[in-house]
Amino acid sequence: MCYNNDKEVDLNIIIKLHRGGVIIYLYNLNIYRVINIEEKSKIVREVILDLPDWIQVSDEMEKYIEDAKELPLWVAKNDEETIGFLTLRETSKDTCEIHAVGVKEVYQDLGVGKKLYYACEDYAKENYEYMQVKLLKEDFQEKPDANVGFFKSLGFKKLETFKTIWDSWNPVLIMVKKI
């Protein structure tokens, strides 16, 4: 929301000057939960393929796509273009986990990830007490603020680091939040 002369004004247009000098308009952002299995696969594949640094092994990418079919999924669309997604997984009767979240590179830093998170948090609050996320430990990330910093900004706290959940060269930082 923006305030003009003490009146609340809803701005539906967000503009970003992209690194390549291209102006990006986020003018009709819609976030909603997707139920259709085929649509979920298509969404996850489209976004992940736009993020080549995120998952470098095609088997891992296919696993995320397959997993998404069975998990609650929220999509972000700019008009009709798919620009991001978030999947959620139950880890216990009291806790859920952000399984995956991705926003196409050109749309990052516009608040899309936060809007996806808040949409899924509303759902999670009805069913769970806690939410967690597993991330690559900060020391091993090229851009720790883009991951750990993002979840800190949403109220997540660092819980513990495990060296063997994924493998010894990818230590896992678990962050948690009471919702």
Describe the structure in your own words.
Strand 10 (157-167) and strand 11 form a beta hairpin. The model is unreliable at 1-11 (pLDDT under 50). The chain has a seven-stranded mixed β-sheet with strand order 5-6-7-8-9-11-10, sandwiched between helices. Strands 1-2 form a two-stranded antiparallel sheet. It has a two-stranded antiparallel ribbon with strand order 3-4. It is globular and about 40 Å long. Helix 1 runs antiparallel to helix 2 (58-70). With 179 residues, the protein is α+β, with helices and mostly antiparallel strands. The protein is 28% helix and 40% strand. It has four helices and eleven strands, in the order E-E-E-E-E-H-H-E-E-E-H-E-H-E-E.
Average pLDDT reading: 83
How many beta-strand segments?
Answer: 11
Show unreliable segments: 1-11
Give the structural class.
alpha+beta
H/E element sequence: EEEEEHHEEEHEHEE
Strand content: 35-45%
Euclidean distance between termini CA atoms: 24 Å
- What best-fitting shape do the alpha-carbon axes yield? globular
Question: Residue share in helices?
Answer: 25-40%
Q: What is the CA-atom radius of gyration, in angstroms?
A: 17 Å
- Strand count, sense and closure of the main sheet? 7 strands, mixed
Instruction: State the strand order across the main sheet.
Output: 5-6-7-8-9-11-10
Determine the number of helices (DSSP H or I, runs of at least 4 residues).
4
